[in-house]
Amino acid sequence: MSTTANREHKKYAALHTWIGLFFGSLLFIEIFAGAVVVFWKEIQVWQQSEQIHRHTDLVSMQEITSAVRAVSDEFEAPLEGLQVVLPGPNRPLLKLGVLSADENLPPDERFEERYYDLSGVPKQVYPPRGVAEILFDLHAHLLIPWKISHVILGMLGMLMLVLLVSGVLIHKKIITNAFNFRTSRSMRLQWTDLHNRIGIWGLPFHLMIAITAVPYALHETPWLLGMSIGATGGSLAPQKMVELFGKDWPEPRGEKAAIANLGSILSDAKRRKPDVHWDVMRLVHPGDIESRITLLGFANSAASLSPTLVYDGSSGEFLGEEPDPIGQGSLLGGKVFTMMVHLHRGDFAGFSSKLIWFFLGLAGALLSVSGQMIWLERKSHKVDDKKALRRLELMSNITFGSTAGFVVAVAAALVAQQVSHLLDRPAETLVLCSLFGSWIAFAIWAIKGRNGFFMTRQALFLLASLGLAAVLVRWFHLGFAPVADLRGLSAVPIAVDCGILVMSFFTAWMAKQLPEKRRNTPGEKRRTEMNKRYEMTG
Q1: HEC states along 9-39?
Q2: Cβ neighbours of residue 288 under 8 Å, at least 6 residues apart?
Q3: How is residue 314 annotated by DSSP?
């Protein structure tokens, strides 16, 4: 290798190393949470199965129409819009968003959300979030205000792309080492082989995730005008809601008219577009003779565009079709973005694509943490100072505690989700406390303890126990009759139970394969050798 090429190789290696060290743990959390929320709708059904089965028949469209008319008549001031998010198997509540026509009010005060359960009873507050919603918010918003989180996530997507490209550039034998895995060699070489194999075989998937993550995270920012409206299924910010209802619709006349039957409109939409799942209705100037009703849905195929159908708000007459709601720009731009959304979520080939995305996501999460362990192992064999070795050991424990602890914390949150049903307590508080409490506790335990096979073995057994406990607690709550789920809306809950059980037993099997004896940490062997040398020279 020439001097110039060697210099460039070192630059790429340094770039790859330092980005991985500073952002590896955050990338692990983001990617792992993303792998789990591939099944976030299924987890929603699993965590709400008891609530759904109290009302096996979803609230009828006639009841929805009556609720919309009642809300429209309740407000003395004219309304600019009403948004109706229809209930579904994973969303057992009817959500109504009310937008006042008073333009002097700020967006937060103009927009109000209301909720109704499946029996039509009004709910005062939004139901507590469970594991699925919290993990989805963590992955999509980092549990912080979206304007800040979207910028951070967009930067993380760019950094992930830089890591992948630089990793390929510094890998000198990317083809010859594609099948090489030296299980009998040192830990550093084992970590290196694992890191390289995951990186090589999962490269197309990881590149796709990184590339689609950037526009997905930044699609609501001002500089991406062609993708200004996100695919959020109706959960939009008040400012965005004002913009949506403020499009070029006919001006209201001030003449009152009854709201059309929403059931008839929904049936007509299903007849026209049978491959689209309709879940959002927007009523513009409800109760006025010039009102309009738009239906929004998501196509079941990544190659199809998600349309918007427009109806007359008083007569229910079909008026036409609008371009894709995900983009007010070009039709091609909206279609490309729709395909990116489906690809990023793995939501294009049913359960099979989700399952593949889940395991590839787990591999990507392991890729980020294995790179950190390689660096720590390599550094531990190059230093001769006890304090430096202790610092490396502390960094190793922090890496292990923050990453493995997050996995354990998610399992603990699943248990807390089901315990909240037994205690008849709001799920959100208990789940959040369990998630962050167990995460912090595990991280402290890892920092205080010794990293290595011994702690990894304990962590895996703990993870398997929590998964088993989540299923058993849910079965106890159902009177040990989980098969009753099959008589409800979907067989999803029992499928999630089986998935958790399989993963728990597999995790316990992996833990059993690890040696029972405590193994040395990175640098511990080196420190022992240094102590012997000092004793001989002392």
Answers
A1: HHHHHHHHHHHHHHHHHHHHHHHHHHHHHCC
A2: 78, 252, 253, 254, 255, 256, 257, 313, 314
A3: T
Backbone φ/ψ region at 500: left (φ over 0), alpha (ψ -120 to 50), beta: alpha
Q: Which of 117, 172, 112, 131 is nearest to 42 (CA)?
A: 131
Q: How far apart are CA 56 and CA 120, in angstroms?
A: 13
Q: Distance between CA 494 and CA 176 in Å, rounded?
A: 44
CA distance 76 to 100: 10
State pLDDT tens for residues 12-30: 888 888 888 888 889 999 9
Tens-place pLDDT, residues 390-418: 788 888 888 888 999 999 999 999 999 88
Q: Is residue 53 classed exposed, middle or buried when 0-12, 13-18 and 19+ CB atoms within 10 A define those classes?
A: middle
- Give the full edge-to-edge strand order of the sheet including 318-322: 122-123, 111-116, 94-100, 79-85, 276-284, 292-299, 308-312, 318-322
Half-sphere exposure of 440 (CA within 13 A, CB side): 5
Q: What does the alpha-carbon distance between residue 177 and residue 186 come to, in Å, rounded to a whole number?
A: 17
The model's pLDDT over 349-359, given as tens digits with 9 standing for 90+, comes to 778 889 999 99
Q: How confident is the model at residue 207 (pLDDT cuts 50, 70, 90)?
A: very high
